[in-house]
Amino acid sequence: MNRNYVFDFDSTLTSVEALDVLAEITLAENPKKDAIIKEIIAITNLGIDGEISFTESLEKRIKLLQAKKADLPKLIKELHKKVSPSIERNKAFFEKYAASIYVISAGFKEFIIPIVAAYNIPADRVFANTFEYDKNDCIVGFDSENPLSVHNGKIQCLRDLKLEGEIQVIGDGYSDYVTREAGIAHKFFAYTENVSRDKTTQNADFITPNLDEFLFVNKLPRNISYPKNRIKILLLENVHPDAFEKLSKDGFTVETVSKSLSEDELIERIKEVHVLGIRSKTQVTKKVIEAAEKLMVVGAFCIGTKQIDLDACKENGVVVFNAPYSNTRSVVELAIGEIIMLMRSVFKRSTELHNGQWNKSAEGSREVRGKKLGIIGYGNIGKQLSVLAEALGMDVYYYDVEDRLSLGNATKIDKFSDLLAISDVITLHIDDNAANKNFIGEKEISQMKDGVHFVNLSRGFVVDIKALTDALKSGKIAGAAVDVYPEEPRANGSFHTELQGLNNVILTPHVGGSTEEAQKDIADFVPNKIMAYINSGNTVDAVNFPNIRLPQYKNSHRFLHIHENVPGVMAKINKVLAKYDMNITGQYLSTDAKVGYVITDLDKKYNQKVIKKLKEVEGTIKFRVLY
Fold first, then answer.
1. Residue ranges of the alpha helices (H) in 153-294?
2. pTM of the model
3. 1 pLDDT higher than 80
4. What percent of the chain has pLDDT over 70?
5. Is 488 a catalytic residue?
6. How crowded is the C-beta side of 2, counted as CA atoms within 13 Å?
7. What's residue 174's pLDDT?
8. CB < 8 Å & 24+ apart, contacts of 574-581
9. Angle at which helices 72-80 and 109-116 pack, to 10 degrees?
10. Per residue in 563-589, is it b (16+ CB within 10 Å) or e — as a string?
11. For this structure, is 290 an active site residue?
């Protein structure tokens, strides 16, 4: 069946209402500019929603505009910059289907024709109003004989065109919808890329957040293989709102939940999810992964990934990203602050004063200058802490299972027990390896100096809490700061630990990396990694996957093939490509012990059967196409 595609102009082909932009130009020097523009926008919306007649809306706006013919070139220049992003990236569609495309708008030909001409839409396929001018070229009105200047004018315009075949109307307003209601249009697509109006979307046959979705529904050629709005992202645990903004702006459909979910809850919610974002509380187990048929990525908005079954993710072709650096400074600053507060007994003195007791004393209060700081774990956090502590005058020593170069005057200690024996303050910064369970226990505490101060901002399970509690009660450890616990609640609420109520013990609820700056940085870093993988296939900085940094692909399609790393898979893939005479412009492969990841860039023209055959290659875990 022959199809006709009828597009609105304002807030559809462009991201703005043209007369609002014209108001910005003509009223630039008017002291009442903001109030007038606000009034114009209100009148525009009343007309679009059908609350007042379109003729009345148009008359009132033109009167307020105070525009001249000479203002129109400036307007056109601005509108060229305001073409809707998905319209712009699908320019090829307009060029190929020009004979089937019409623009019917209640706007004005004077500015519409120059904009759509760049998209191969000729002037005789543009139906819109025209301005009327006085002898000084001031815009004073419009052609009142034009059917588009009156209420429901689009209905009459479409009737007069007598188009053959199916008519699909794409627009953002009520005046677009009524063409379907009147039986003139066969389908109405509510276009919401720039604005979403309840009255319009409630009556639409389809809601299309961008042109990609419209083209996908109609199986028409498009710039991207799969509309991003169909890719669903679930963000849990109150991830910073910048992540939502960033991912939504890129076109994805994003849902947020303020708390973590249990395994059963997550299994229920994840079935249609393509990307999962979590922090440290949500447990992404093997059962969760196996229930998530569409899942492509897990983004950990934190440093640790112990809460994620990385092997299960890998075996199911799910890539995991984290934020190994974004909140390290925040953790370091808290460690420095707590070291000083412990050494000065600040928390103890503060508690006394809160309880009405004045106890001014130097007893148990010492400077950090000249004291020995023992850092266990000399990674990103340990190294930064080393530099800041040295700047405070501390003598820094560190222990790490890996050979790490010291910064400044820090001294590497080869034997763990030696570090414990010499340190006035011990601070833990080790990873979430399961082998680190009870890394600090009764034996290790017995090897420490009497009156040592202890800080744990790493992982809760690495310290035997009972042994720490006993040492604090006996005075072996003079003070402690603990931010992490063996078991932590999934949401804010009641909590109990044996450490509560002890003298000179600072307890914080896992807030080491929870500063506004850190969470904002994480909300930038992790979404960037997610988008790089979804949009181009890049796996740089993936935790569980072969890392590949890919070049941008232009004028080609990209096949992404994740497979079991067994002999012969690559040969089978290339055999399929050769059988269908695929013109390969680039191919990239990286493997680890379990999986292989091969990316093939090809000419745009290819036999569609090749996709089915590649999916059937033995050992295939996941396959997708990008273009």
1. 153-161, 174-181, 198-201, 211-217, 241-249, 263-269, 286-291
2. 0.80
3. no
4. 100
5. yes
6. 7
7. 84
8. 576/610, 576/613, 576/614, 576/617, 577/602, 577/610, 577/614, 579/613, 580/606, 580/607, 580/609, 580/610, 580/613, 581/607
9. 40
10. beeeeebbebbeebbeeeebeeeeeee
11. no
Token pair recorded at residue 45: 């919306």
Tokens of 578: 């050769």
CA distance 152 to 182: 10
Structure tokens given for 536: 């181009």
pLDDT digits (tens, 9 = 90+) for 139-169: 999 999 999 998 889 999 999 999 999 999 9
Helix (H, G, I), strand (E, B) or coil at 403: coil
pLDDT of residue 223: 85
The encoded tokens of residue 33 equal 């500019």
Parallel/antiparallel/unpaired status of strands 556-564 and 595-603: antiparallel
Q: Which two tokens stand for residue 258?
A: 């303020």
H helix or E strand, kind and range, residue 20: helix 18-26
CA-based torsion, 375, 377, 381, 382: positive or negative: positive
Strand partners of residue 190? 171, 207
State yes or no: is 563 an active-site residue: no
d(CA 419, CA 412): 9
Task: Give me the chain's average pLDDT, please.
Answer: 94
Residue 456 forms beta bridges with which residues?
428, 482
Q: What is the dihedral of CA 198, 40, 111, 163, to 10 degrees?
A: 40
Residue in this structure with the two tokens 């303050």, named with its chain if needed:
425
Residue 616: other Cβ atoms inside 10 A: 11
Q: Which of 488, 490, 564, 624 is catalytic?
A: 488
Interatomic CA distance for residues 116 and 103, integer angstroms? 9
DSSP-based three-state secondary structure for 338: helix
pLDDT band at 54 (very low <50, low <70, confident <90, very high): confident
What are the CA-CA distances from residue 310 to residues 81, 82, 191, 282 (Å)? 45, 44, 40, 14
Q: Of 180, 349, 510, 563, which is the active-site residue?
A: 510
